[in-house]
Amino acid sequence: MVSLALAYSSVSGDILRPALRQLDASELAETFPYLVSALISVIDILLMLGLVAAVARLSPWRLLASSGFAAPIRGPLAWSVAWFLPALLACIALATPAADIAAADLLWLSIGAPLSEELLYRGLAVGVLVRLCGWHWAAACVWPAMFFGIVHAGQGADLMSIAGIVTLTALGGLLFGWLYVRWTFNLWAPVLLHVGMNGLWLLFALGENALGGVAGNLVRLGIVLLAVVATLRMTRERAEPAGRGNVGAPAQVDECSRVRPRPAVRLGRAAGRRALRGRCCS
User: Fold this and answer.
1) What does the alpha-carbon distance between residue 37 and residue 17 come to, in Å, rounded to a whole number?
2) Which residues of the chain register pLDDT less than 70?
3) Which residue in 226, 221, 140, 145 sits closest to 181, CA to CA?
4) What is the C-alpha to C-alpha distance for residues 162 and 157, in angstroms, rounded to an integer?
5) What is the pTM of this model?
6) Which parts of 95-187 fold into alpha helices (H)?
7) How many CB atoms within 10 Å of residue 103?
8) pLDDT of residue 276
9) What's the confidence (pLDDT) of residue 279?
10) What is the pLDDT at residue 170?
11) Of 126, 222, 133, 230, whose CA–CA distance to 174 is shortest?
């Protein structure tokens, strides 16, 4: 079900935009130009929640609560200072401020879209694959990252740029997934990194798309290095490899997403768990 929902998310825009064309031309869409994009993202999330909840016989609210949004934000927020402030100073030194920044762009492209993408591709997809299906953390991060890259293919103008954007954003999705698992399924770490990078791309002329220019790629490389090093230092005690090589043992899903390391995940009755795994991950 996770794979089905991910596959749908890669084509949902092409499917739904023609049906929502009238809404896209409405006065409401003039006030908020990203209304249709927001609706499509919400539908993607609801589909993932509905499919997994139905097959695993879990409440959608329980799945949503276990995605990591309820986890403490204090640690990831302090971590974000380690990479955001140097990145901001680098942008001021290397790039020029972007012209004609609209409030709607900042609201959706730097906040709304990262939040919805991290919830879908990391909080739900990676979370379910590791904690419910028992996947190795690396495979669970790679699989959604591939679809995450495909979703961004529309930013490319030709075959080479499309290939570059898909590859780059897929690698970014892999990093976000690793952060999510390393921070013991705390979704705020990948959310803050995603929001910060998108925000800098909007506020400064770092590139027309995800490929970026020279300054943009220098800033991006610096952010990644600082974010990884700070993560390794700040999560050293909480993320000890366990079980099948996971970064931190698979955690039991509960309402507040507190991590209790266990060798296996217990969601529902053990007798039907293997069958549920196969159906949830398909």
Assistant:
1) 8
2) 237-282
3) 140
4) 7
5) 0.85
6) 103-107, 113-118, 127-131, 137-151, 159-182
7) 8
8) 53
9) 60
10) 96
11) 126
